[in-house]
Specification:
Blueprint lengths: L7 H27 L3 H29 L9 H27 L3 H42 L5
Length: about 150
């Protein structure tokens, strides 16, 4: 069985949809919790989303340079350390930004980050499940058409 390929179009759609959904959920929740205007919490959610996407690219490029083993050969320990390193980097990068934009202490911002991480895992699982179902329904038709060209 061959590994399924993901097109660039699908990757872009997946990333944008994921981030838009996260921003649309997080901004109003932060506004309610911190009694801040939605414009402030929306800007924070967008900024943190952009930081996360950039950090993802930088972090994975660094990891790929340091570790030459194919990712499909990584064991649980390597995957755990990879994920932990990514999350530590996100906290280091986003904590001061969240504290500054919300006008709260670093400790309060850390609590926000903890709440965000409690949200992001189930959100990620639900989003990926929904995206995979939609992809199967909508993108599969596109690939079938490409795989079977019309005969003239």
């Amino acid at each position: 069985m061959s590994k399924p390929t993901i097109s660039l179009k699908e990757r872009i759609l997946h990333a944008i949809g994921f981030e838009v959904g996260a921003v649309l959920i997080c901004a109003p929740v932060l506004a309610l919790v911190f009694n801040k205007p939605i414009e402030s919490t929306g800007m924070l959610a967008i900024l943190l989303s952009a930081i996360a996407m950039l950090w993802n690219m930088v972090y994975n490029a660094i990891v790929d340079q340091l570790i030459r083993l194919e990712r499909n050969q990584w064991g649980f320990g390597a995957r755990f350390l990879h994920g932990l390193g990514f999350e530590v980097g996100i906290i280091v990068l986003c904590l001061p930004v969240a504290a500054w934009l919300l006008g709260v202490s670093l400790l309060q911002a850390l609590i926000v980050e903890a709440g965000f991480f409690a949200f992001i895992l189930p959100y990620t699982m639900a989003y990926n499940w929904a995206f995979d179902k939609a992809k199967q329904r909508f993108f599969a038709k596109e690939k079938i058409g490409q795989a079977c060209p019309r005969q003239s």
